[in-house]
Amino acid sequence: MTNSRERVNLALNHQEADRIPLDLGGSVVTGMHASSVYNLRQALKLDTPGSPVKVIEPYQMLGEIEPDLIEALDIDVVPLISTKTLFGFKNEGWKPWTTFDGTPVLVPEGFNTEPEPNGDILMYPEGDQTAPPSGRMPKDGWYFDTIIRQEPIDEDNLNVEDNLEEFGPISDEELEHFRREAERLYTETDRAIFANFGGTAFGDIALVPTPMA
Questions:
Q1: Could you give phi then psi for residue 178, rounded to 5 degrees?
Q2: How many angstroms from the chain centroid is the CA of residue 38?
Q3: Rounded average pLDDT per 10-residue block, the chain, 213 residues
């Protein structure tokens, strides 16, 4: 019988598997909004009403796809994600928050919850509120839009180094995180591991303008 890891490998090698592999939440481009995750978990009776969902990527307000949901839907992929969000702060120090539609969630401590007078929510790079905000969730919105903070561009004096501040080698700490998590996921599951090395994709529209620095 084909397991999830074998099924994904077959598909990637253009070979027919027993069924089409399913990925939900393996990366930040295959995730699900926290409100939808909450409703799905409630429909499957995985949680009691009011149980919060972790927002593991606040830029899109993506909810965590936990092992019990992976098992319930027979998802073939598990995520291997960075320790940091697209806004540059770490996924740690969880605190309660409520989305505009009333969904109870947990957000990282770097998540700014101070609304503007018009009800919009601002987000700051690395959670640093002394810096200009880099993201805005409109009142009653679902996710953040990047705020353009680019100074006027002088087309006659372009310098590539001016646009490299947000990028650099992956730190030893982050590499160790990826190594440790990859080993754990490989040992503890038979699912395919989807590694997402955030901040390394030049030209990624989510990083233009960058929200994390």
A1: -65, -40
A2: 16
A3: 91 94 93 98 98 96 97 96 90 95 96 87 92 93 89 81 71 93 96 83 66 77
Closest CA to 28 of 166, 162, 196: 196
Q: How far is CA 98 from CA 6, 56, 103, in A?
A: 39, 14, 5
Distance, CA of 34 to CA of 72 (rounded, Å): 17
Would the pTM count as exceeding 0.85? Answer: yes
Identify which of 68, 67, 62, 77 has the alpha carbon closest to the alpha carbon of residue 20: 77
